[in-house]
Amino acid sequence: QVTLVESGGGLVQAGGSLRLSCALSGRSPISYAMGWFRQAPGKDREIVAAISWSHGTTYIADSVKGRFTISRDNAKNTVNLQMNSLKPEDTAVYYCAATVSWTVVRTTSEYRYWGRGTQVTVSS
Fold it and tell me: Cα–Cα distance between 35 and 97 in angstroms, integer?
């Protein structure tokens, strides 16, 4: 059984930075794709970034490109989302997800495992 636990959310002023981490336990992550999604009130869940653990291939959504980066820490079995130049429209609950795949996965429905989410609030 795979368990994902997010950390690092909080309240930040516009222009600030936050770093989210997602710890995967229960399996070796080598054959997994992992992603960060977000969901704002009244909106659909959308992908923010994704990474293929085996190859390190990444995907960044256009809405955050140039501001957010995704990376993995092999020693800690964590995936990190570095968020810079945050805007009020980045406010949402951020979720970590994982699924078995050797390539990057961008689609919400293809992810099998989900964390409980962490709130990110950006004040103007």
Answer: 5
Dihedral sign of CA atoms 47, 91, 10, 84 in order: positive
pLDDT tens across 80-103, in order?
999 999 999 999 999 999 999 999
Q: Identify the CA nearest to 80 among candidates 38, 24, 40.
A: 24
Residues 104, 108, 114, 120, CA torsion sign: positive
Distances (CA, A) of 113 to 3, 33, 84, 85: 7, 11, 26, 29
* Residue 4: strand, helix, or coil: strand
